[in-house]
């Protein structure tokens, strides 16, 4: 492992601390009785406090020093004075440990007394301090010049998501996002618990990936010697509980879909699903309006929130627009009653990419998603989806070609999906069989037939309404974030590129190619000045690493740097 100069120095300090008999990672409890926030909120001159946190800055001036300590609730100024800390002849705790062996980023514990500085800053005068954890890597802290300009900020998205622990330390606003995320889930729980619904847990490993149209992750259970899938939805298990006699159940579930990643999709995501007996999708629309209004108030103290350049109003009621009407309004095509060939022709006229595996449901979904969805910025219920799009949804009571389903669109994206649930076991079997035909046609997202779920329906499921709300997208809205990675502590990332270590000879070759697009191979070899054996070995290894290539052309051989 290659260490930077600062990392080497910190390790040397670690050794010196141990030589002084100081354990840089003590095991004993540290009796914290205050935080930066509680001190400021309930400040009383002369009070004794015990606090802990990370050393974030300091200004050493001889035998005195002002520093900043950061804990879970913010920062507070602390004052180190050599004679307050070292009351006897031995001044080494200040002179050696504090001044020379502590670093920015170290976690320390402080026993002190509150006082106010001449400029009115609430401060802790340090009476004693302990090292609780030595930081061996320096924090990427921004620097501010005399004009207030900030430099070296830790703002590269890939680094921030990959090293979220650093991001949380140096970018305080990031922490606020995740505190709001907890407020949002707590608000939902309060709303449903007050109505008497039961929070439950259902399996993540499932023998059949049901409840949604999506490509699953596949794994294998060795002891049972069977394939298992990470769930794509928890819907079918929650409905089994309604069959079993619960009137209302909900779950915050981690779902997994083996699909692409972008600013609004992560292969692992959180969905809240609710199922309530003796209700329909009209009741669910009313209830969802009440829920989102409460969430907005609990999270941001207002039903109006700003998302990018848009102000979104979550106060009820929300517009309700049938999906076929939306398509007609925004494309000019009336697709109601069209067969698969006619829909494919419309999609092609609209410039959409379609293929033979796409049935009626997917074609309508593609048309709406690409040509209509983005128009719905304010909360809007898109309703009454064609039957082919909704294999788990009850047939519309007024039009048998449609279903009693809605999707809630906000800021041009789907936030929730809900149905009057299909509870006719014969109809449900037929819908599953239609999905099977799509699968045989090549649609790898089509639903499996879940025979046990069909058996459950045959015992009788009461009329039920269900909804799934994407928690990650909801948090994005409520915190004004445009990327799902910003609201996940640890989003899925591509494998981290390993640093390539080169020999001195290989470095010579690559340095010569650093500022030029290419060099004739003979010229490169002459400039490198390597022996034939070292040249052959170096170029062969550079080619194997994929960072060096030789191209043969009519005018000779040319060397290039790759990447």
Automatic annotation (TrEMBL):
Task: Cite the EC number.
Answer: 6.1.1.6
Under catalytic activity, the entry for this protein gives: tRNA(Lys) + L-lysine + ATP = L-lysyl-tRNA(Lys) + AMP + diphosphate
Localization, per the record, is:
Cytoplasm
Entry-linked Pfam families: tRNA-synt_2, tRNA_anti-codon
Taxonomically, which superkingdom? Bacteria
Transcription regulation found in the keyword field: no
Q: Check the record and name the PROSITE patterns matching this protein.
A: AA_TRNA_LIGASE_II
Keyword annotations of the record? Aminoacyl-tRNA synthetase, ATP-binding, Cytoplasm, Ligase, Magnesium, Metal-binding, Nucleotide-binding, Protein biosynthesis
Cofactor or coenzyme needed: Mg(2+)
Residue numbers binding Mg(2+) 2: 414
Q: Which HAMAP family match?
A: Lys_tRNA_synth_class2 (MF_00252)
Similarity remark: Belongs to the class-II aminoacyl-tRNA synthetase family.
The record's NCBIfam families line, in alphabetical order, gives: lysS_bact, PRK00484.1
Record's subunit section:
Homodimer.
The molecule here is called: Lysine--tRNA ligase
The species this protein was found in: Croceitalea vernalis
What's the encoding gene here?
lysS
């Amino acid at each position: 492992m290659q260490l930077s100069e600062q990392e080497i120095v910190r390790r040397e300090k670690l050794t010196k601390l141990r030589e002084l008999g100081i354990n840089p990672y003590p095991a004993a409890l540290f009796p914290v009785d205050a935080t930066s926030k509680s001190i400021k909120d309930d400040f009383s001159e002369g009070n004794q406090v015990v606090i802990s946190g990370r050393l974030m800055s300091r200004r050493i001036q001889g035998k005195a020093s002002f520093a900043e300590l950061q804990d879970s609730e913010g920062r507070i100024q602390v004052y180190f004075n050599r004679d307050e800390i070292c009351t006897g002849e031995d001044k080494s705790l200040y002179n050696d440990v504090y001044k020379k062996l502590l670093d920015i980023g170290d976690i320390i514990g402080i026993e002190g007394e509150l006082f106010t500085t001449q400029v009115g800053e609430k401060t802790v005068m340090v009476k004693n301090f302990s090292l609780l954890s030595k930081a061996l890597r320096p924090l990427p802290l921004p620097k501010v010049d005399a004009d207030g300009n900030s430099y070296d900020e830790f703002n590269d998205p890939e680094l921030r998501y990959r090293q979220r622990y650093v991001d949380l330390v140096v970018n305080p606003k990031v922490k606020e996002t995740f505190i709001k995320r907890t407020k949002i889930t707590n608000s939902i729980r309060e709303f449903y618990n007050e109505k008497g619904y039961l929070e439950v847990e259902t399996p993540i490993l499932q023998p059949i990936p049901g409840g949604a149209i999506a490509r699953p992750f596949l794994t294998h259970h060795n002891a049972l010697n069977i394939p298992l899938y990470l769930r794509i939805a928890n819907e079918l298990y929650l409905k089994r509980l309604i069959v079993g006699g619960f009137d209302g159940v909900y779950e915050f579930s981690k779902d997994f879909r083996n699909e692409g990643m972008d600013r609004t999709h992560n292969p692992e995501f959180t969905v809240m699903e609710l199922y309530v007996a003796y209700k329909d999708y009209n009741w669910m629309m009313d209830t969802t309006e009440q829920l989102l209004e409460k969430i907005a108030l609990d999270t941001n103290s207002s039903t109006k929130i700003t998302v990018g350049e848009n102000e979104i109003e979550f106060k009820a009621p929300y517009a309700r627009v049938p999906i076929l009407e939306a398509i007609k309004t925004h494309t000019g095509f009336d697709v109601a009653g069209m067969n698969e060939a006619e829909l494919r022709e419309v999609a092609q006229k609209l410039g959409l990419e379609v293929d033979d595996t796409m049935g009626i449901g997917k074609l309508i979904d593609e048309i709406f998603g690409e040509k209509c969805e983005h128009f719905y910025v304010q909360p809007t219920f898109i309703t009454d989806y064609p039957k082919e799009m909704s294999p788990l949804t009850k047939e519309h009571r007024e039009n048998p070609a449609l279903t009693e389903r809605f999707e809630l669109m906000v800021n041009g994206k789907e936030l929730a999906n809900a149905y009057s649930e299909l509870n006719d076991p014969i109809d449900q079997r037929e819908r599953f069989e239609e999905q099977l035909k799509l699968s045989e046609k090549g649609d790898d997202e089509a639903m499996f037939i879940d025979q046990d779920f069909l058996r459950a329906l045959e015992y009788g499921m009461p009329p039920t309404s269900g909804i799934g709300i994407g928690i990650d997208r909801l948090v994005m809205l409520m915190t004004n974030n445009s990327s799902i990675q910003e609201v996940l502590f640890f989003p899925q990332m591509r494998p981290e590129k390993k640093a390539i270590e080169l020999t001195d000879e290989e470095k010579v070759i690559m340095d010569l190619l650093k500022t030029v697009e290419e060099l004739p191979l003979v010229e490169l070899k002459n400039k490198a000045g390597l022996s034939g054996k070292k040249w052959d070995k170096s170029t062969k290894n550079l080619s194997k690493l994929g960072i060096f290539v030789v191209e043969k052309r009519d005018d000779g051989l040319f060397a290039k740097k790759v990447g």
